[in-house]
């Protein structure tokens, strides 16, 4: 080996030897400037709302701004690609629904990123899904709904936050289990989908309880059933889809924070500990109850295992329903 080669090898060896200590030093000083949190949906959606709650608390804890940047589109792919290409220093994070970090590789023929390379930081929240219909939908109960849609193939349409999102996959699962046929109307996020549902331009949507319950209480739309294994305490009068006649139909969603590939594990661990601390605080617990949210939490390793399981679960639905990006 030449002298130059030996020098380069020695320098690389020195840098590698120093990297653990350097990473610890970086984590100790982290964050010392604003952190950008790229949210994978437009402002106003469920992911956006939860992220703003957590970001506010992170800002209070660390004394640095956690700046929200909404980049909706392509079921979260736009945000995911931006984060994967970002510098892995902890100053760019992604907050997203499951799609961009779980099933999108099964839906899109070509992606410019590999979501398995993202570093799981924290699961912020879990949200039960419900069946929400427009206020003047002809069926008034879950049983009537099931009979109506099964008896009128392709007559009724359903909104989703986009191809491959939880709302889309949940409806595909519903159709697979019941034999019903509905027409898909994809949107770019929760807010525009709900606007059209309230405006009676679409018929129904399987979506998160947190936003649906407000519309239900105000009479702007109606919750006919919950997609959980048992009735919810906040809606004891609303049956499950299983009770209505959809066997084994259970679906919920969740919101996660991830970081670019190769983000120092010490920084990931510091953020994870901070989010867990926030989720366990009494005021956040009360706020989540008011928003019909269940707190997330868990270690980075536990989050990674959870995401892997969810990826397999919903990828199976994608393959069975032959879902492709629109």
Strand-and-helix sequence, N→C?
HEHEHEHEHEHEHEHEHEHHEH
User: Would you count the extended β strands for me?
Assistant: 10
CATH architecture of the largest domain: 3-Layer(aba) Sandwich
Rounded to the nearest angstrom, the radius of gyration is 22 Å
Structural category: alpha/beta
Quickly name the level 1 CATH class of the largest domain. Alpha Beta
Q: How many domain regions?
A: 2
Which percent range fits the helix content?
A: 40-55%
- Point out poorly predicted stretches: 1-18
Report the total helices.
12
CATH topology-level fold name of the largest domain: D-Maltodextrin-Binding Protein, domain 2
Distance between the termini: 54 Å
| CATH homology group of the largest domain | Bordetella uptake gene, domain 1
Percent in strands: 15-25%
Overall geometry: globular
Mean pLDDT: 90
Largest sheet: 8 strands, mixed
